[in-house]
Amino acid sequence: MQSPVIHRVTALDLMLRNRPWPFADARRAEIDAHFAAQQRAKPSLWNGRVLLGRDPVFAGGRLSANYFETDFASFLAWRDWGFPDGEIFNGFGMGALLANDGAFVLGEMGQHTANPGRIYFPSGTPDLNDIKQDSVDIAGSVMRELEEETGLSAADCRADADWYCVYTGPALAMIRILRVDMPGEALRQQLEANLARQHDPELVAIHLVRSRADLGAAMPRFVTAFIEAQLAA
User: Fold this and answer.
1) Which of 176, 184, 137 is nearest to 160 (CA)?
2) C-alpha–C-alpha distance, residues 72 and 49, integer Å
3) Is 94 helix (H, G, I), strand (E, B) or coil?
4) Predicted confidence (pLDDT) at residue 233 exceeds the cutoff of 90
5) Nearest-5° angle of CA 75, CA 6, CA 103?
6) What distance in Å separates the CA atoms of residue 163 and residue 135, rounded to the nearest whole number?
7) What is the mean pLDDT of residues 168-172?
8) With bands split at pLDDT 50, 70 and 90, how would you rate the model's confidence at 167?
9) How many domains does the chain have?
10) Would you list the DSSP string of 175-223?
11) CATH code, domain with 83
12) How far is CA 64 from the centre of its chain?
């Protein structure tokens, strides 16, 4: 994985261009065995359909890329085996919750999820729900994941116009700041109350980041790189 590079863009042109994935076809038996083992350890894992990206281009204040559909088992194996197909990336949206006192608000994933203990902004690999005609709607994906994970809706925040695309090679995090008119501690308490009402929440804790001292090893590098750049600005 390369060092994070941050591109600030005003538009996302993400087209659905389905095609075969040679990695998934050639290693089908291994992939199925790997997923079966993961599912035995975490029965809540589901082999649904997800969207992965290729051919990213940053130009003229825009990100352009193509997406294709595959199964979650193939994505999981590709991730767990060290990203053997270097032409593919996991391109997902993130809603960077920002309280009105300058605190960023992140969630900690539960042990039953595919990313146990990881701390980051509401997000998720795009899936079939994020397809609009022949394009991938990352803005819609961000708001969907925000509501599913935290209980907040679009009415509870104000989205900035620009996107911060943090590219590491295998991952491309498209981060949009979501401003909430509430202090960080109050927002944390509200989100914790929302989680307590969920039957099987993905998140188990809410974390505030006000300075570099609040960053930790459980946060992916694309998250800490984004926050460091925001704090420096």
Assistant:
1) 176
2) 6
3) strand
4) no
5) 95
6) 17
7) 96
8) very high
9) 1
10) EEEEEESS-HHHHHHHHHHHHHHSSS-SEEEEEEESSGGG--TTS-HHH
11) 3.90.79.10
12) 18
Average pLDDT score over the chain: 96
- Tokens 């900035």 belong to 160
Copy the structure tokens of residue 39.
């599912």
| Entry pTM | 0.95
Q: Which residue has the tokens 């079966």?
A: 36
pLDDT, residue 2, reads 81
Closest CA to 75 of 115, 16, 35, 26: 35
What is the distance between the alpha carbons of residues 79 and 63, in angstroms, rounded to a whole number? 23
Give the C-alpha separation, 119 to 13, whole Å.
Answer: 28
Q: What is the token pair recorded at 131? A: 């397809």
Q: What is the pLDDT of residues 76-133, one digit of tens each?
A: 999 999 999 999 999 999 999 999 999 999 999 999 888 899 999 999 999 999 999 9
Structure tokens, 185: 């501690």
Cβ-contact 165, 58 below 8 angstroms: yes
Whole domain around residue 181: which residue ranges?
5-232
Q: How many percent of the chain have pLDDT more than 90?
A: 95
Sequence length of the chain is 233
- Name the residue among 96, 225, 233, 84 with its Cα closest to residue 168: 225
- In 3D space, the residue among 214, 218, 216, 217 whose CA is nearest the CA of residue 231 turns out to be 214
Phi and psi at residue 189, in whole multiples of 5°? Answer: -65, -40
In angstroms, rounded to a whole number, what is the distance separating the alpha carbons of residues 78 and 86? 10
Q: Residue 49's beta-bridge partner residues?
A: 71
Question: Which value, to the nearest 10 degrees, does the dihedral of the CA atoms of residues 152, 158, 163, 166 take?
Answer: -40
Closest CA to 35 of 89, 114, 97: 114
Half-sphere exposure of 48 (CA within 13 A, CB side): 11
